[in-house]
């Protein structure tokens, strides 16, 4: 039994924490939060690229470090802990992972080295409006390699170079790689609940679109991409949840009421114990997700455990982060409700991370559908 | 078991309604519908308050001699309902008339009362309440703002926080520490102060919701006369309890979207299979929210019944904020998640004018303001159920010797 | 505004509490609980009849007291508080109310005076197996006035004289009054979670059945009957929930741990505060239900508020009683888990009351359907 | 991050499995599958324990010199897994070998150890733990069973409660109060006792679930020798802490139906519109239960990993019972309510052999036994998160002067 980070992975994680402690303190996050003109922290992005993290899981042949997915999970956990204001998820968990899993050799060669080098920011353009996007409601379309339609919102769409876009071609949904710097693309930055991450409306009018993966398989491809991203996002959520518990604990140990630290009152103690329990459930599910994700990259036909493991990891991590974020504000009392205390950075990010890549409710439905299939088989 | 007014109540309601129809029309003709937080809005509010006072509809339960209406609590509630329906209610006077001026009436000398009560009733002067401090929080009496006797004056230094309306208030009641050598509750003294004094500085607090509705208030060598003292030296906590006793009546329910709005949203938004409203899990939540909202509404009716019967309302009214603040957070979060990735948007293209996103960012504050969830449960447990208070280690310790972590 | 019991109603309620305190102490409940041969307490039933409670809401013309439904609610609250082991709900909330609402004059004359006199116990026979009984699955049927089929379980079916039975006639569901003492009826007493209430399997083979209400309207009639019963049951649940809170509070004030009464620990204090909040929400919804139920008996076409009010009352009361019952055990610690302490009487009854007349989940669905209708109109 | 045994672990597992296949077959041939709670079942259990001891598979982590296996914690876990799969695990020895005998080993003299350890390992004698009292509960040290010195003997009077296996145990370790004039924790002394002594009376407790699995144990002038003392006079609490330290390892997860069983139920039962499994609200609950169950399973894997790496497992294992006991209650209740009115039935016609109804009546006990939800959260808050303990008013008060309400 070896169900934990290895010593090497722990070392990588410790180094990542030190690095982000220096390069991504709350002041850096607030630099993006407070400046409507900025959607991410470019110096941090460059520094992260220099660390090799963008290509951590990209094969050496394509300019990456060729590490496993568990190493990437360790980095994700630390990025979440630091609420890093960079398009790491869009670029690494989604674009790079999608291209590695579903891209042609030419696409891999074109995209992966540039991701690893920090030259390319990615985005996933699915949503066209509020609510669940059902296949029949999909209106973006590709004809003769040209994309038309509007995608809103697109996380990191205002700064991305390449987007993966879901659109109909010949009446069936497919995925397409679109160069956002080319003609036929209009972007508008939008306001959001979490200003430390960029969001945009992308309007396409004849933009060049190159198919990613099999034609007409867009729905399944999206799910496969989200399964992988869900595991990595779960680690970001877990990192954030752990930090919320820490902050709440530190505050509770330093704040006095009625002559005692508030951390000595059962109402606070049990709230923090509840956070701890949720975080540990999330951690254990995330570890299993990491195992399944890694296994899926090592086996010809992926890992059959991944859909269930990814869903469980995502559900547990979303629940843990939301609970920790909102109750950390509560433990901080009036101070927690101010802009100057960092609680709201995590409160906002917990919402951002739950809203991208499918809400927890949709993942619960996916999980139960998978259980039904297994159970029937 | 019915919802009808008694004959006397119905008559009062009819009279109030008739007055309101005419008065509101006249008021609107003069002032229009000014935007909130503008000088025009404040002017309109003051004019409306003056109009009410002239007709006996301001401070309805107070004696006519001080400018009140000489009426009953149930009449006050009835008028409030009708005023709400008439659409001309303003919030600027709630804290002053609900909490501060009653304290002045209870503890000030005759001249002071004469000077302040009537102008406050007429809306000419606005009051704020200066109790909370960064070091206080749930433990209000742990405050540190110092008042030091200097001849016939007191010199005050310190800081208050979360003061509603400090920037537009004319006067305030201020709780200070005058003796740090005695236990916490025994070294406090209350004063009224002039908020326009240059030694008083208001700074808005930047909240996590982005807004700046509350203030920090700083005192730098603020001099007040001993005649501004309310109650005896060292009796400030007893005075504050009188103020806080009135708080429950002054704090309203949680504003923001309720089950109805989220139901409309779910009807309009696509879910996996038909509108989001067709999802059974959402429907169960919706049922729970409806039941809780109805529970609060009918609990208020029970409170009104007690007033109507001339009784003191029971403790059942204390359940309101615990339920409504948590429900607002859950409801807003559900509504935002239901929008999917689109739920992140808060700009002009946001769903329902970003009302759910705003509530999501406001709800954490509601769970804290006016008593945290935890303090309110303590209150229910102790005052309603009669369970013992927590072990108190601060009762017999001089304030200056109390551990504070600093 | 007069949204509370009147002074007269309060007096009635106080008297009922005193009466039940004397006639229905826990020992009487345990007498039924511990004896498998007994399904109810016959002396208590007779005493309750003598008090006039069985006919409280029955018109004087039919031998009742002719009081309003709010008075009946007050009695129900006290019966719930005392976990009375008698078939009051089946007989009064269901049989008598159903006959008053939907019976012919002849049926009223035949049944109501006997109910009021304590000579007739009722039952409602809907269920034919586990899960939701959908109209298409209904298998009991009436042909030529003769009923065949099996109903399981039927609350109080082992002691009832008359049952209201849902059965198909001419392919459409209808309601029927069946004399259980007549030929063609077989009953078997069954074991249940709450042995203080009787449960039976009823097998019909050509039993005489007389239609109650309009032909083919069985589904709507059942719902109308359950709407009324739900309000009255909510008061029983509320009475039980109040008693659980009281018991927990009393125990918490008398039990010491670590030198202090456990009622001084925040974990216990907040648990009891949560109970209080749920009970008050339940009370306020129950009062509205009482108003709507009473109004529905005074107006020609019933009260349009009743379906929503009944659902809300039932949902809130079920939630409050379940929470209070299970957390009262928890507050009592190891003692709460013993047979000798009364906690489990309430724990069992809370389940019994949630299972009869439709589970809370079904009532939530009904409530939202009603809200949709209103909102659309 | 994988689930594979290390090479050494794999080899051990292979060896254990091979032995188990043969041993279980031989055991079954001799003893069959006797019904639980029969003398035959007990005899089989003792025979199986003896067989394990002979092969070095009993008390795997104990030294071979006392009859143990001389192995590692991870080997013990591996054997437990394989033994479970082989279907021949018995529970009679868990408390004795997990908690009582380790206490004897830590505190008894050489002769006593020689007398008791080996027979216990071989399953010849069974031990129980006598700590809990009606007056104790969560506050174990508040116990009242008195031991009074009489010559070279001690005379014991009092009552214990919730003693698992008292009626089939041969010996027990008994925590008593020997000095009521000193503070609670300082006046306790531990003894081992002979459960067959006529001065010891076991009475089964009738539980709310209907069963009688636990006991009250009464002592009426029970005489024990001073040589039966474990640890010094007045040091009983320190001895008990050693016993209780081993408790966590001895307490297993919640038995009873899990998400899989309730999913099967929901597939079979009709809901409003198709099977109950098609209801979204149920599906969300099912997902939550699955996620929590997986969380506990993989948390156990993390604990095993620490053992496998030769480390001490972290505090994460303490989350188990809080989650599983509450989940069992919620899951059972949902399953019962899903059956509709039929859910009340518990006899032969009940759904799934009334398994859900039984769990519903057991779950309240699980939330209390071995530490209530509230005590376990205190433990997490204090031992894992490092938050302070509650204010203790009983530390410096003589036991006899402590308020008790009686």
From TrEMBL, chains A, C:
Gene3D superfamilies: Acyl-CoA dehydrogenase/oxidase, N-terminal domain, Butyryl-CoA Dehydrogenase, subunit A, domain 2, Butyryl-CoA Dehydrogenase, subunit A, domain 3. Residues 216-359 form the Acyl-CoA dehydrogenase/oxidase C-terminal domain. Its cofactor is FAD. Residues 6-119 form the Acyl-CoA dehydrogenase/oxidase N-terminal domain. The keyword Metal-binding does not apply. It holds the Pfam family Acyl-CoA_dh_N. One of its GO terms (molecular function) is acyl-CoA dehydrogenase activity. CDD domains: ACAD. InterPro entries: Acyl-CoA_Oxase/DH_mid-dom_sf, AcylCo_DH-like_C, AcylCo_DH/oxidase_C, AcylCoA_DH/ox_N, AcylCoA_DH/ox_N_sf, AcylCoA_DH/oxidase_NM_dom_sf. Belongs to the acyl-CoA dehydrogenase family. This is Acyl-CoA dehydrogenase. It comes from Caulobacter endophyticus.
From TrEMBL, chains B, D:
Keywords: FAD, Flavoprotein, Oxidoreductase. Its cofactor is FAD. Pfam families: Acyl-CoA_dh_1, Acyl-CoA_dh_M, Acyl-CoA_dh_N. Residues 8-124 form the Acyl-CoA dehydrogenase/oxidase N-terminal domain. InterPro entries: Acyl-CoA_Oxase/DH_mid-dom, Acyl-CoA_Oxase/DH_mid-dom_sf, AcylCo_DH-like_C, AcylCo_DH/oxidase_C, AcylCoA_DH/ox_N, AcylCoA_DH/ox_N_sf, AcylCoA_DH/oxidase_NM_dom_sf, Mycobact_Acyl-CoA_DH. It comes from the Bacteria. Residues 128-221 form the Acyl-CoA oxidase/dehydrogenase middle domain. GO terms for molecular function: flavin adenine dinucleotide binding; oxidoreductase activity, acting on the CH-CH group of donors. One of its GO terms (cellular component) is plasma membrane. Transmembrane segments: none annotated. Belongs to the acyl-CoA dehydrogenase family. This is Acyl-CoA dehydrogenase. It comes from Caulobacter endophyticus.
């Amino acid at each position: 039994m070896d169900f934990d980070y290895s010593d090497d992975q722990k070392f990588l994680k410790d180094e990542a924490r030190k690095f982000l402690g220096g390069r991504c303190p709350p002041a850096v996050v607030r630099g993006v939060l407070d400046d409507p003109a900025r959607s991410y922290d470019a110096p941090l992005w460059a520094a992260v690229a220099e660390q090799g993290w963008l290509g951590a899981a990209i094969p050496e042949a394509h300019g990456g470090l060729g590490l496993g997915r568990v190493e990437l999970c360790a980095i994700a956990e630390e990025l979440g802990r630091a609420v890093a204001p960079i398009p790491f998820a869009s670029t690494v968990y989604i674009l790079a992972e999608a291209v590695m899993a579903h891209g042609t050799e030419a696409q891999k060669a074109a995209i992966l080295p540039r991701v690893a080098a920090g030259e390319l920011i990615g985005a996933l353009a699915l949503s066209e409006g509020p609510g669940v996007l059902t296949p029949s409601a999909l209106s973006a379309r590709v004809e003769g390699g040209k994309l038309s339609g509007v995608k809103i919102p697109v996380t990191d769409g205002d700064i991305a170079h390449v987007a993966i876009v879901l659109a109909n071609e010949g009446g069936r949904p497919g995925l397409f790689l679109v160069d956002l710097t080319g003609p036929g693309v209009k972007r508008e930055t939008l306001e959001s609940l979490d200003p430390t991450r960029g969001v945009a409306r992308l309007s396409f009018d004849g933009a060049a679109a190159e198919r990613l993966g099999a034609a007409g398989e867009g729905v399944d491809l999206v799910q496969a991409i989200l399964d992988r991203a869900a595991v990595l996002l779960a680690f970001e959520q877990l990192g954030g949840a752990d930090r919320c518990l820490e902050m709440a604990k530190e505050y509770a140990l330093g704040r006095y009421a009625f002559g005692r630290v508030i951390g000595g009152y059962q109402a606070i103690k049990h709230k923090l114990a509840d956070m701890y329990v949720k975080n540990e459930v999330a951690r254990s599910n995330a570890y299993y997700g990491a195992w399944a994700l890694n296994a899926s990259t090592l086996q010809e036909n992926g890992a059959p455990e991944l859909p269930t493991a990814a869903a469980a990891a995502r559900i547990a991590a979303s629940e843990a982060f939301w609970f920790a974020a909102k109750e950390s504000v509560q433990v901080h009392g009036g101070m927690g409700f101010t802009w100057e205390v960092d609680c709201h950075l995590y409160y906002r990010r917990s919402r951002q991370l739950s809203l991208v890549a499918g809400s927890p409710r949709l993942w619960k439905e996916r999980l139960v559908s998978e259980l039904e299939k297994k159970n029937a088989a | 078991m019915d919802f009808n007014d008694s004959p006397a109540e119905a008559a009062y309601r009819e009279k109030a309604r008739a007055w309101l129809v005419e008065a509101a029309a006249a008021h609107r003709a003069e002032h229009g519908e000014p935007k909130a937080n503008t000088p025009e809005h404040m002017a309109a509010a003051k004019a409306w308050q003056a109009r009410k006072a002239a007709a006996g509809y301001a401070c309805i339960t107070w004696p006519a001699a001080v400018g009140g209406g000489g009426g009953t609590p149930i009449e006050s509630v009835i008028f409030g309902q009708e005023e709400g329906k008439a659409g001309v209610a303003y919030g600027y006077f709630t804290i002053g008339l609900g909490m501060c001026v009653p304290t002045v009436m209870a503890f000030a000398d005759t001249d002071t009362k004469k000077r302040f009560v009537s102008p406050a009733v007429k809306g000419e002067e606005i009051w704020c309440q200066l109790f909370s401090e960064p070091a206080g929080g749930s433990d209000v009496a742990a405050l540190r703002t110092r008042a030091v006797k200097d001849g016939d004056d007191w010199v005050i230094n310190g800081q208050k926080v979360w003061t509603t309306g400090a920037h537009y208030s004319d006067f305030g009641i201020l709780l200070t520490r005058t003796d740090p050598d005695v236990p916490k509750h025994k070294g406090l003294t209350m004063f009224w102060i002039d908020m326009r004094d240059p030694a008083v500085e208001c700074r808005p607090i930047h909240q996590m919701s982005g807004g700046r509705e509350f203030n920090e208030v700083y005192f730098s060598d603020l001099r007040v006369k001993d005649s501004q003292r309310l109650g005896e030296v060292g009796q400030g906590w007893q005075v504050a309890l009188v103020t806080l006793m009135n708080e429950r009546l002054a704090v309203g329910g949680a504003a923001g979207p309720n089950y109805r709005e989220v139901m409309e949203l779910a009807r309009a938004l696509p879910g996996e299979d038909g509108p989001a409203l067709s999802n059974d899990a959402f429907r169960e939540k919706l049922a729970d929210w409806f039941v809780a909202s109805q529970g609060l509404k009918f609990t208020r009716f029970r409170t009104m019944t007690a007033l109507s019967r001339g009784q003191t309302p029971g403790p059942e009214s204390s359940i309101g904020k615990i339920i409504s603040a948590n429900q607002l957070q859950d409801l807003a979060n559900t509504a935002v998640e239901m929008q999917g990735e689109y739920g992140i948007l808060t700009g002009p293209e946001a769903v329902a004018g970003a009302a759910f996103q705003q509530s999501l960012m406001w709800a954490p504050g509601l769970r804290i303001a006016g008593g945290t969830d935890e303090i309110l449960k303590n209150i229910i447990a102790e005052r309603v159920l009669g369970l013992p208070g927590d072990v108190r280690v601060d009762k017999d310790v001089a304030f200056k010797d109390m551990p504070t972590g600093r």
